[in-house]
Amino acid sequence: MKNGWLIYSKTDALQNASYIKWLMDEANKQDLLLSLILREEMTIGIINNDMSIQVNNKTVPQPDFTIVRSVEPLLNLHLEAMGIPVFNSAEVSRICNNKALTHLHVNQLGVPMVETIFSSKDNIPDTPPFSYPFIVKEVSGRSGKQVYYIENPKDWMKCKTTIQTDIILQSADVQLGKDLRVFIVGKEIVGAVLRESSSDFRANYKLGGSAKLYNLKEHEKEQIYKIIVHFDFGMVGIDFLIGHNGELLFNEIEDVVGSRTLSATSDINILEKYMAFIKAEIT
């Protein structure tokens, strides 16, 4: 039986206890043993000129694979450098947890997106590059957090004093409060969920939005497969904004993706697919 580590931060592990159990149950069905490892209990680095991983300050046997559910690309890279398969990979983690990098890569694939400006936190212009309203996102924000709707110069000046990281600025010329999340395992489109909110410009389910299963059209699948072919995904969510004519416009890729909207709107068992995919990859 292959042994794997499921790595979570302590806070996220408490909030996702049922999801962790589901992951472990599906791993067991694939004859995989999955053990929860808290990130705070791990120490990584170089000891005696060798790459090292310790858990609770003790050297432990290396796992056969890891599923990293914390956002720390260096951790993924360190594990890979020690020869341990990591899901998602360090490259996926590095790119997809930076919204500017993600847009740069996806743009090169010919996938449509809204006008997007990159800015370092130390070089934010006094005069915004878009007419009001527009959107500002911190490049490392997740789950609809660190996203700002800028309606006027007062909002812009307040935002400039609030942000902590590099940012992207985006046109708001889309159907606000609506987006599409496409769930991916490996090279497979598992399902798609349309998320909507009548009270917020963000459509995130966690922020009170609604969700329903969405049947992708063939031309939409073609756009999505351009992204899938380019990356070596384990399990991710690819998010699209909706243009005024219903067209999909790339928004972001969620590396540490949850699947509660897919579970709420369908009987698709995405974690069964994910564990089967991991088993095939490591064997």
**Any idea of the CATH topology of the largest domain?**
D-amino Acid Aminotransferase, Chain A, domain 1
- The percent of residues in helical segments reads 25-40%
Name the shape in a single word. Answer: globular
Stretches with pLDDT under 50, minimum 5 residues: none
Summed over residues and divided by their number, the pLDDT gives a mean of: 94
> What's the multimeric state?
single chain
CATH superfamily of the largest domain: ATP-grasp fold, B domain
Strand content: 25-35%
* Order of strands in the sheet with most strands: 14-13-12-15-16
Q: Could you describe the largest sheet, including whether it forms a barrel? A: 5 strands, antiparallel
CATH class descriptor of the largest domain: Alpha Beta
Strand tally: 16
CATH architecture of the largest domain: 2-Layer Sandwich
User: End-to-end span in angstroms?
Assistant: 11 Å
DSSP summary: helix tally: 9
- What would you report as the Rg, rounded to the nearest angstrom? 20 Å
Which properties best describe this structure?
Dna Ligase, domain 1; 3 domains; single chain; alpha+beta; Rossmann fold; 9 helices; globular; 5-stranded antiparallel beta sheet; 283 residues; D-amino Acid Aminotransferase, Chain A, domain 1; 4-stranded parallel beta sheet
Verbal overview:
The protein has 283 residues and is an alpha+beta fold. It has 3 domains: 2-87, 3-Layer(aba) Sandwich (Rossmann fold); 94-110 and 175-282, 2-Layer Sandwich (D-amino Acid Aminotransferase, Chain A, domain 1), CATH 3.30.470; 116-171, Dna Ligase, domain 1 (2-Layer Sandwich), CATH 3.30.1490. It is built from 9 helices and 16 strands. A hairpin with a 2-residue loop joins strand 12 (178-185) and strand 13 (188-196).
